[in-house]
Design brief:
Elements (H helix, E strand, L loop, with lengths): L6 E7 L5 H15 L4 E7 L11 H9 L15 H4 L2 E4 L2 H10 L7 E4 L20 H23 L7
Parallel strand pairs: 1-2, 1-3, 3-4
């Protein structure tokens, strides 16, 4: 990453209504706190929820922690693999799907969000969609730790491949 160009990061989950919108806001917040110029976005591998706001439970957990989720769900596109520097998938299924969808010579580095979680590197962020409120709170904690560590590494120029 060069200093004149902001870091471009995409949070990726299945439908872009639960995990990735929260990850997007946490990454934006943590990168800003760390003084890292960044453009952060989110998307889903599927198209079921395109145009919809984040799930009400994700909006609620974000609100309780002082975040506002304002985006609308979208599906990842081929352009994302050239426009983004890092695509952070929420789980192994999303990671595999992103790698399958990546066009030839894609430039984005695709990895797991929790590769940056100091408590459980390389683990999935479980999809809380079919569970209760505790799943959303646990999701938030995992994403917050991961976003904070991602920002710390970005600030220190330690992101692999950047």
């Amino acid at each position: 990453m060069t200093s004149d160009r902001p870091l471009r990061v995409l949070a990726l989950c299945l439908g872009n209504i639960c995990r990735s919108p929260v990850a997007e806001e946490l990454l934006r917040q943590e990168l800003q706190k760390a003084g890292v110029r960044a453009v952060v976005d989110s998307a889903g591998t599927g198209d079921w929820h395109v145009g919809r706001p984040a799930d009400s439970r994700s909006r609620e957990v974000a609100r309780r922690h002082g975040l506002q989720l304002g985006g609308r769900a979208r599906q990842i596109s081929a352009a994302d693999f050239y426009e983004q520097e890092v695509i952070l998938a929420m789980d192994a299924q999303n990671l595999a799907e992103a790698r399958r969808l990546a066009p030839p010579n894609a430039e984005a580095k695709v990895q797991l969000m929790r590769d940056y979680d100091p408590e459980a590197p390389g683990e999935d962020v479980p999809d809380p969609y079919y569970g209760g409120p505790d799943g959303f709170e646990n999701m938030y904690a995992m994403l917050e730790r991961s976003a904070r560590e991602f920002a710390r590494q970005a600030q220190g120029g330690q992101l692999a491949g950047h």
